[in-house]
Amino acid sequence: MQQHATITEATFIDNGDFTPARKRRGRPMHRMLVSFSAAYFTGALVTDLVYWQMPDVLWERFSIWLIVAGLVMAGLATIAYAIDLAGGRRIDRPAWPRAIGYALAVLLSVINAFVHSRDGYTAVVPTGLMLSGLVVVVLLLTAGVSMALANRHRVGG
Predict the structure, then answer these.
(1) What percent of the chain has pLDDT over 70?
(2) Nearest to 99 by CA among 155, 138, 47
(3) Regarding predicted confidence, which is higher, 17 or 65?
(4) What's the rounded Cα separation, in Å, for the pair 5 and 8?
(5) Cys bridge to 118: 85, 112, 123, 139, which one at CB 3.0-4.6 A?
């Protein structure tokens, strides 16, 4: 048997304040996407190291997929950075050392993708492995320099 419910009374709470809530301005979106691409590039180095020790084609395929995923995220990060700049969102200063270092890492990763697309063991060892390592070193140096400059800028030195 079906039962029906009836609404006998409705209560509306009158707030009286219809001003929109202030939006919190969090971190820019491009910084999160850059972190993802850096993680993919680091993962490619790890899988290259595993492939060097255990030459199973599976690890070489993992490497190329991680590099391509990192490049896709880098493209999305570039688009998000342009949107953040166009929208007037506050970008951490100084941004140029980070942008140059990241662009160098992406360029090296594009070259690395072409190296990894070759066939056989030489696709990874030694050139692909060295490029993956160089990308991670560039990303680490860029992060270190950016943090040092940001701290110096924050302190006012």
Answers:
(1) 80
(2) 138
(3) 65
(4) 9
(5) 123
Q: What sign results for the dihedral spanned by CA atoms 24, 29, 31, 33?
A: positive
Match 């709470």 to its residue by tokens. 13
pTM summary value? 0.79
Q: Find the radius of gyration of the CA atoms of the chain.
A: 24
* Three-class DSSP labels, the chain: CCCCCCCCCCCCCCCCCCCCCCCCCCCCHHHHHHHHHHHHHHHHHHHHHHHHHCCCHHHHHHHHHHHHHHHHHHHHHHHHHHHHHHCCCCCCCCCHHHHHHHHHHHHHHHHHHHHHCCCCHHHCCCHHHHHHHHHHHHHHHHHHHHHHHHHHHHHCC
Report which of 22, 47, 26 is spatially closest to residue 129, judged by C-alpha positions. 47
